[in-house]
Amino acid sequence: MINTLAQIDYLACAGRSPWHRASALGKLVLAAAFVGVAVVTPSWAVLLAMLLGAIALTSSARMPAGLIAAAASTPMLFAAIFVFANWNGDARAALVLAMRPVIASLTALWLVGTTPYPDLFAPLSRLLPRAVGDSLFLTYRAVFALLARIERLWRAMFLRGGLDGPLRRRASMMGEAVGTVVLSGFDRSQRLYQVMTLRGHSGRICGCRHYLELTRADGWVVAALAWTLAVNLLLWRVRTP
After folding, report:
1. DSSP label at 17?
2. Which of 67, 162, 170, 193 could pair covalently with 157 via S-S, beta carbons 3.0-4.6 A apart?
3. Quick one: 240 exposed, middle or buried, by C-beta within 10 A (0-12, 13-18, 19+)?
């Protein structure tokens, strides 16, 4: 998991596709449009077109095929459970239920894989309360450090036999491991706050890039939005009976 998150973070910063050069705000609007349409549309034809569009977004952003497959397949298990629970013999209705989470997952991958996290959280921090926006900004980076620590701790427990023996002993060891990680997280956050204070932190964390600066690449975002609108106008009436 840590390797996957690190790979996405690297792609967001080192990618060279036109989507990487587009403004963060424009990409947020496009992603919200894709997810919004996937949630509200009753048309299987619109959903199929949006799914193809989401695949085109991730492919044109030069995402690795493994990441695209993982993003598409991860929500399928939960979607399959929901489809099975609501099965009424209509294959098109089942298709509608299955495509919604896949579109959202692929769109999210495209957004975080083409937008560095300072640009991604900068516009959100203007809409959210200050404490919430700053917490999201810091938590994103802290996740990598905590996951790496958990991975090292898990490997050490495995090598030293901490995962062997009866279930009661393993549960006790895992509880102690979780407690160690939580205490380590508190200690790390305290040190981080002290460092920020020494470096002039004034109580507000802002995005360090120009998330509102428009470029020629934003023309692709406008074209994708226009395509989304056209698809909905043309195919909205094609739905399950």
Report:
1. S
2. 162
3. middle
The yes-or-no verdict on residue 208 having pLDDT over 80 is: no
Is the same domain home to 8 and 109?
Answer: yes
Q: What share of the chain is helix, strand, coil (3-state, %, to 5)?
A: 75, 0, 25
Residue 59 shares a structural domain with residue 166: no
Report yes or no: 17 and 60 within 8 Å, Cβ to Cβ: yes
Three-state SS at 61: coil
Identity of the amino acid at 193: Y
Residue-number span of the structural domain to which 178 is assigned: 129-198
Question: Are 139 and 182 contained in the same domain?
Answer: yes
Q: What is residue 215's DSSP assignment?
A: -
Same structural domain, 219 and 109: yes
Distance, CA of 72 to CA of 203 (rounded, Å): 39
Measured between alpha carbons, how far is 33 from 27 in angstroms, rounded to an integer? 10
Q: CB 37: neighbour CB atoms within 10 A?
A: 23
Q: State the pTM of this model.
A: 0.71
Nearest in space to 212 (alpha carbons), one of 129, 126, 128 = 126
**Which residues does 12 contact at the CB level (< 8 Å), separation at least 6?**
20, 112, 113, 114, 115, 116, 117
Separation of alpha carbons 173 and 163, rounded Å: 8
Q: Work out the average pLDDT over 186-199.
A: 68
* Residue with more model confidence, 36 or 145: 36
Q: How many CA atoms lie within 13 A of 85 on its CB side?
A: 8
